[in-house]
Amino acid sequence: MNRRFLIGSVIIVCVVFLLTACSLNPKPTALSDSRFNGHFYYHYVKDGLESHDDYYKYDFDGSNKVWHYYKYKWYSKTSGWHYSGDYIGDDVGYYLEFEVNDDHTMYRTKLWNNDYSSWSEWLVYEFLDESTLRLYYSESLYRDYTKI
Which residues have C-beta within 8 Å of that of residue 89, sequence separation ≥ 6? Predict the structure, then answer.
């Protein structure tokens, strides 16, 4: 009898642990602005003394879980070459939680499923047409992303 009680208790504890772990893992929800559906990229190339080759991409599937990818290399005459990773050709990608306000004019982000990440400040976004998304990073700095 004591052995059955112990086995039953272990099973109950395991089930409770699994259910708790599953409930802590956030599930994607639909974004309120349906125009955020698809792949948007930004590519900037500049040659010369201060050369750049920057590539940024957001992969939206209509939910608030977004894949963000970037790869860059640039040269500064004062500090030399800089890369997106530790080595030439490195790229960086990670999931973001993406939120838009009720007016569909501002957005904010944080790392997906990361308890130590905090929301960025609210920033302006706009769709210039059906295939161009403008994301602001400050009042005067923005990038125009083209839908693939």
Answer: 71, 83
Read off the pLDDT of residues 60-107 as tens digits, 9 standing for 90 and up.
999 999 999 999 988 888 888 888 876 666 789 999 999 999 999 999
Q: Which fold has domain 26-147?
A: Lipocalin (2.40.128)
Domain boundaries, the chain: 26-147
User: Distances from the Cα of 68 to the Cαs of 22, 32, 87, 145, in angstroms?
Assistant: 25, 19, 20, 12
Q: How many angstroms separate the CA atoms of 18 and 131, rounded? A: 43
Across the strands, what pairs with 135?
125, 143
The model's pLDDT over 24-70, given as tens digits with 9 standing for 90+, comes to 567 999 999 999 999 999 999 998 878 999 999 999 999 999 999 99
> 56, 69 in Cβ contact below 8 A?
yes
* C-alpha–C-alpha distance, residues 148 and 95, integer Å: 19
